[in-house]
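User: I've been going back and forth on whether these two constructs are worth ordering. Before I decide, could you fold them both?

Assistant: Sure. I'll take them in the order you sent them. The first construct and its structure tokens:
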Amino acid sequence: MSVKKIIPLFFILISISYIVFSLSIEQRRMIGDIGGWDPGSRAMPLGIGILMLLTSAYLFFKESLLSTSKSTKLDKSQRNLIIFVIIISLIYILIFRYIGFIIATNIYLYSLAFFNYKKEIKWRFIPDYLTGLLSITIFGLIIYSVSRYTIRFLFLMGKKNSIEVFTGRLLPAFISIAIAYLLIFLVNLLAKKLIKYPDRKIILSSTIFAIIVTQTLYIIFKQIFWVNLVSGIVFW
């Protein structure tokens, strides 16, 4: 992956992190705002995060498309991809609070990765895309659950046996993410041996990428910095 693609991807992750941070800010309004014109304390940082996300996603796909084309002009399929990025980014922002950080972020990053590999949008991609959505939702929740219960187990064990390092932030986070990475690595290794078709490998690569990034962001924000991430429909 070229530097020109890595930089927008990096800012996509920064944008997601900033949106997560914005939504965790306590919503406050000015005293005496009878008319309800004050958008609240989240409005400015959330707006900046959305703008950063849309811009970064656009640049990421634009560079990806231009790198495979000799022409500097975007054709119809390339324009459709960029429009798709904008739409999926807006959908991510809209559904974030309803279905939660884990599922929404997994789906968003998977979608970006999947169509980045495909380089275009075709109706024949829909079955593979939906298969990937189902896979990443299930596998993402499994990895999340393992990390979640690992941290809880360490905390309870540390509290019961007066082991302070297990009731803190860093060591449980490190152990949790290490176990998650190990599970992801083993599943990826096994799946690569079983999957022979290139289209299925794209699903696998997109899924693994999205889960690694999402789980890493979750551990950093939730466990280390104790940011109150939106749970959505993930009630456990």
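The second construct, handled the same way:
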Amino acid sequence: MRDNSNEPPERPEPIDIESTFNQFVNFYGGKQVADMFQNKITTPNADYYFPDQNIIAELKCFEKDMASVEGFERMEKLFESWLSRGLIKGEEFIAIAFGRIPYPQQCIMELWTSIRKSVDYVLDKAVKQVRETRKLLGKPDASGLLLLCNDGNYGLTHRELLGVIGNLMASKYSSMVDGFVYFTYNQTVRIPGSDIDHQLWTAAYSENTPDKIVNFVDDLGSKYFKFMEVHTGVPIAESRVMDVKDGVSLIKDMVYVPKEKVFKKAGKQRSKKGK
């Protein structure tokens, strides 16, 4: 988690996560897999290979708000279904969509099923890309790591989204990759007792993941925030990373800085992770 002892007078403009992370990986000593093959790969592949650690990593960004009707096709279809089946009334639509009244219980169950499917789609695709890259590089013993950035999903708290990710990873993918990192940069939070912006870098691992991977992830996170300090010009007084289990109580208390305060430029074009 990043902590600034002195809040900057103005928040920096939102960054493009994918392009800046590409730059960071090059700085760190990793390689972009596409560059290794002159962008001539015809099969799905992961984003990065770290040769010194023999780790393959795939970056995915959660940019769509999975629990908001705004801009998310699946939520729009859910609301249409609930209206047609009489689970909600027309006059309740706006109040429910903006959190003024709670969802009916049946709607909550269907909403969480939809969210789980959305997250599972992302994870399944990422795991397959790691698997195919092992074949592509001829590195069947390479470790696999998912880098998951929350970059616009304000409808779920960090705790809720991490809960869905962690459950899916444990139940379906723990034998295929060694762990995942969940992080933010643009999407900042406040925590009790602090009036400054915080960012998150936390990780969880499969059983028997070697210490060298844990140490690599910790070092990657620390150097990422130092790199971003240089990249944005915003001083970072302290940066630290934490395990999901160790940080669960702190994560629970995090409250997002409102989206309109972070993403100040209306109509700002932001890249989508659509590989």
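Notes on the second construct follow. Confidence is low (pLDDT under 50) at residues 3-9, 265-275. The first strand starts at residue 2 and ends at 3.
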